[in-house]
Amino acid sequence: MGMTQQAGPAVQTPPAPGPRQADGRTRERPLALRLLARPEVGVFLGAVAVFVFFLIAAPAVRQGNSMATVLYQASTIGIMALPVALLMIGGEFDLSAGVAVITSALTASMLSYQLTLNVWVGVVVALVVSLAVGAFNGWMMVKTGLPSFLVTLGTFLILQGVNLAVTKLVTGNVATDDISNMDGFDQARSLFASSFDIGGVEIKITVVWWLVFAALATWVLLRTKYGNWIFAVGGNKESARAVGVPVTFTKITLFMLVGFGAWFVGMHQLFSFNTVQSGEGVGQELIYIAAAVIGGCLLTGGYGSAIGPVFGAFMFGMVNQGIVYAGWNPDWFKAFLGVMLLGAVLINLWVRRTATRR
Known about the structure:
Elements (H helix, E strand, L loop, with lengths): L30 H6 L4 H17 L6 H26 L7 H18 L4 H26 L3 H24 L13 H8 L2 E4 L2 E4 H19 L1 H11 L1 H6 L4 H27 L10 H11 L12 H19 L7 H24 L2
Antiparallel strand pairs: 1-2
Helix pairs in contact: 2-13, 3-8, 3-9, 3-11, 3-12, 3-13, 4-5, 4-6, 4-11, 5-6, 5-11, 7-11, 8-9, 9-11, 12-13, 12-14
């Protein structure tokens, strides 16, 4: 009987493992490029350069009280620059932010004084008014489809006129009456405009609030669903809407955050000086926007951080006070700010191109 032999399956020896071929799509970028991709890196380096420059050019800056004044100036800008930056990341502008600060202060002051109420009543009503102005801006923009630039420009003109007209009508003057002797003033002042001593240096409470708000804004942007919504609507609102992002809610609440910031800064001004000039605030909105842009927020939206505007506001405070301490003509302040703004935009552009280059 014939025997048939079946051959078993051939066994193939796997090749020896060799070095992995790096794919350009998965290759990890160098640490330097990853750092440059952060929106706050450029402004941080700029803030350090400005700080060192004025340490050399203005020796008075080296004193503790001088630095406390710089931080105070930065904080009054930075508190408003934070919500303005969040709004810009969401792809919108608010040109009424400067006069909205004065509107909130006028509301609290005149309501409390004319009706002889506890100042806290005026503070709460001013908060409601500020949030309502922000909600109106957001609602009008969403419902009409008009650019936020045009909507808030209209609000800016309305508030500017109302501030002056109503103040003259109610008080017979362009400024409100002194409310320092009214019930609740001392408690409100301790919250919005007090100061404390550290090593013989007087620090304004707004510096603490500024840093607290910056930490909170950073947490919201990086750790919450709402922060993802902000980046999404700023990048492409139609794509964001297609994946379930509540675009209308996000846009309106961002404008309301600007209203909250305007209320807080307005209360600080009121309880710092006891009275308010109704014609102030014009032009401040550009300072807030510039601080956000210098801080790395793109004008097109969808990109930025909350830490960047902190450094941007610090640069403003440093330049504002540094020019005074150096004994230079303060008329150069705006020119210096213009140079900083253009320089920051160019640096941010270079940083982004470098960071995305393979």
